[in-house]
Amino acid sequence: MAYMSEGAEGLRSVPALLQRNATRYADSPAYREKEYGIWQSWTWAETAQEIEALALGLLNLGVNKGDHIAIIGRNRPYLYWSMVAAQSVGAVPVPLYQDAVAEEMEYVLGHCGARFVIAADQEQVDKVIEIQDDLHQFEHMIYVDPRGMRKYDHSRLHEYSHVQNQGRAAYDEYIKELDARRGALGYDDTCVMLYTSGTTGKPKGVVLSNRNIIEAAKSSSEFDSLRQSDSVLAYLPMAWVGDFIFSIGQAYWTGFCVNCPEASSTMYENLHEIGPTYFFAPPRYFEERITALVIRMEDAGRFKKWLFDTFMAHAREVGPKLLDGKPVGFMDRLKYALGEVLIYGPVRNRAGMSRVRVAYTAGEAIGPEIFDFWRALGINLKQLYGQTEASVFITVQPDGEVRSDTVGVPAPGVEIRIGESGEVYYRSPGTFVEYYKNPESTADTKDAEGWVATGDAGFIEEGTGHLRIIDRAKDVGNMADGGLFAPKYVENKLKFYPNILEAVVFGAGRDMCCAFINIDLTAVGNWAERNNIAYASYQELAGHPKVLEMIQGHVEETNASVAEDDMLSGCQVHRFLVLHKELDADDGELTRTRKVRRKIIGEKFEDLVTALYDGSDDVYTETEVTYEDGRKGKITATLKIRDAKVVPVTRAKVAAE
């Protein structure tokens, strides 16, 4: 493929885009943040000044070209500025997950050899201090929020604003060096290093160049007609490639405004206040919003609930057609317009999506029912398929071709092919440079021609060119009778029910599928309250007979739906149990992006898997857990195992093709 060598519009780095925006959009808002109940705003010109002051301060601290600067904390303008300031001095920003424990941070900081850390607050500073003796290259740490930091040893600890002030004071001394470093940034120089979630082992450092980020941002912005007047809410982990491409890549390419919530707990409120026009959320967000809505409707009066059910049934028939510009009869349009006033508009407003022009979901497969629900409301929700190694974009869904069962067509500039084993491969301008200090994994993932193995199994539909993802290639297998086994397909259908938070399906090489279920404490707790069911803990509620009966109903409804799919009808769940604890990233059961670590769960709960398949009615288990303060403990439980009704299918249906 012929890629641009000098950069889109001659702009070869994010700092170069910043300089353009500081002139072209000087007085337009670049960042907003709500702090102490008040929205504060910075224009592009002010943003450039803040970043330059920090970059000068970094030079004053001794940052060299090629140094790695770790950035830890929640979404704040100061931390986004830190990433661009690091780039400006020729260093490499390495954002970390703010909820990672010290041991996880130790691996990443040690692996990348970070000399400098920029942390949001005392909590993050304490984590680094706990492990700093094992970080042989670590030298200085900068913190944004000074609360609680007064009595710390400041020999290697610096307040963010002080570093900026020192940079301003040393302007004459360092500005020529800063200009030289900014001017020397090339299209193939490193823009950022992001660590993978590590579903199968240690996280890998994905090196992305300026070319990767700018080309991906340019093509995706043009694809969805993003413009400078758009706005986004930046609330996803800064260590995740999705947040980087939206809040840095596309924001700096288009010049739109990035809005940061006051805290994670106020995200929904802040979303409602900002009313973004461009929105991204993982499937979990849309599942949680449906759960909250269902809970509210269960508490509503009979007439209001009837009204909601009636108009939502109509919306599922008409809403997607209206979004796609397909013909809809006059009476259907009239009824939908009435529903817009009574139901759809208020629900969108409550969800903070009244102004959304384009919404995306990715990161995990979304259940078709969940996806169709939001499009029925008139929200232009689309799916994209991507990876950190692709600078996000592999496939996207064009307007008018949005479907719940595919992830769209190749993104602009992306080539896709399907390997002999069914694995999806791609190459594009966004293809990563390498895995840092890991040439073996780089060679295993990316071949000499630039084709990248995604690790996902799928196929391209004839006629439409749309890509359908079946599951992770390592998770796709066969049942004992030869039928196809794709656990994620079933898990997503189960998670459509608000009462089910997480599901893990087993069945590869076996004669039937079985499942672990996590209940959603909020939804099931609300249901228990309405039904006068008393409980003292998650474990007690999860094991209540009436809860098990309710979950069994969801499993059997899911089986009926799965049975309709000729290819996957053999994946119906025959037996299940409700886990006594929530799957947790701190316990190693989920990644920081809430992806199931299937192999680890299977090994950790091997006794439960065995009980599901040996015909046991119940099983006693002891499980190690990690408390919020980092302490380890054990919980014990006797779990009931239930049999679920399955829909008989013929041998022709379950046979692998």
Walk me through the structure.
The protein is an alpha/beta fold and 657 residues long. It folds into four domains: 8-280, 3-Layer(aba) Sandwich (Rossmann fold), CATH 3.40.50; 282-383, no CATH class; 402-470, Luciferase, domain 3, CATH 2.30.38; 477-654, ANL, C-terminal domain (GMP Synthetase, Chain A, domain 3). It is 39% helix and 22% strand. It is built from 22 helices and 29 strands. It has a five-stranded parallel beta sheet, with helices on both faces. It has a five-stranded mixed beta sheet with strand order 25-26-27-29-28, sandwiched between helices. Strand 23 and strand 24 (484-485) form a beta hairpin. It is globular, with a radius of gyration of 25 Å.
Shape, per Cα inertia axes: globular
Cα radius of gyration in angstroms: 25 Å
On the 0-100 scale, what is the average pLDDT? 92
User: CATH topology of the largest domain, which one?
Assistant: Rossmann fold
CATH superfamily of the largest domain: ANL, N-terminal domain
Number of strands: 29
Q: How many independent structural domains?
A: 4
CATH architecture of the largest domain: 3-Layer(aba) Sandwich
Separation of termini? Answer: 35 Å
Strand order in the sheet with the most strands:
4-3-5-6-7
Task: Based on the model shown, name its key terms.
4 domains, 22 helices, single chain, 5-stranded mixed sheet, alpha/beta, Rossmann fold, disordered C terminus, 657 residues, disordered N terminus, globular, Luciferase, domain 3, 5-stranded parallel sheet
Helix-strand blueprint:
Layout: H1 14-24, E1 29-35, E2 38-43, H2 44-61, E3 68-72, H3 77-88, E4 92-96, H4 102-112, E5 116-119, H5 122-131, E6 140-143, E7 157-159, H6 160-169, H7 171-184, E8 190-195, E9 205-209, H8 210-223, E10 231-233, H9 241-254, E11 257-260, H10 267-274, E12 278-280, H11 283-299, H12 302-323, H13 330-350, E13 358-361, H14 368-376, E14 381-383, E15 385-387, E16 392-396, E17 409-410, E18 415-418, E19 423-427, E20 434-435, H15 439-445, E21 452-460, E22 467-472, E23 477-478, E24 484-485, H16 487-494, E25 500-506, E26 513-519, H17 521-530, H18 538-542, H19 545-562, E27 573-578, H20 598-604, H21 606-613, E28 618-626, E29 632-643, H22 651-654
Parallel strand pairs: 1-11, 3-4, 3-5, 5-6, 6-7, 10-11, 12-13, 13-14, 26-27
Antiparallel strand pairs: 1-2, 8-9, 9-20, 15-16, 16-17, 18-19, 19-21, 21-22, 23-24, 25-26, 27-29, 28-29
Helix pairs in contact: 1-2, 1-9, 2-3, 2-6, 2-7, 4-5, 8-9, 11-17, 12-13, 12-14
